[in-house]
Automatic annotation (TrEMBL):
InterPro entries: HMA_dom, HMA_dom_sf
PROSITE patterns from the UniProt entry: HMA_2, PROKAR_LIPOPROTEIN
Protein name per its UniProtKB record: Cation transporter
Signal sequence coordinates: 1-16
Keywords for the protein's UniProt record, in alphabetical order: Signal
Organism: Nannocystis pusilla
Amino acid sequence: MGRIAALVLAFAAACAAPPEVRNTRFVVGGMVCHSCEEGICAAVRKLDGVEACTADHAAGAAEVRHDPARAPAAAIADTITKLGYTAAPAAAPAAP
Ligand SMILES: [Cu+2]
């Protein structure tokens, strides 16, 4: 019992610690075609800390693989917004 608990704790710690890079889904408004997707991802990929970007105008969403320490979700949303679209992390907690 104690040994299993220790193993579970060690596993949880290993999972929680290293992964700096994560995927964040953004709700993006204003995309109407494939060029919009390309334009958004071209700009987002230029950010330091962004590893990958895919956007889907039909779904109105973009998925970005990034290091939040170097490229926070807010900075990515800001980059998309400056291109004339609306953007917000899909998993953003509701405002209090
Ligand atoms: Cu377009």
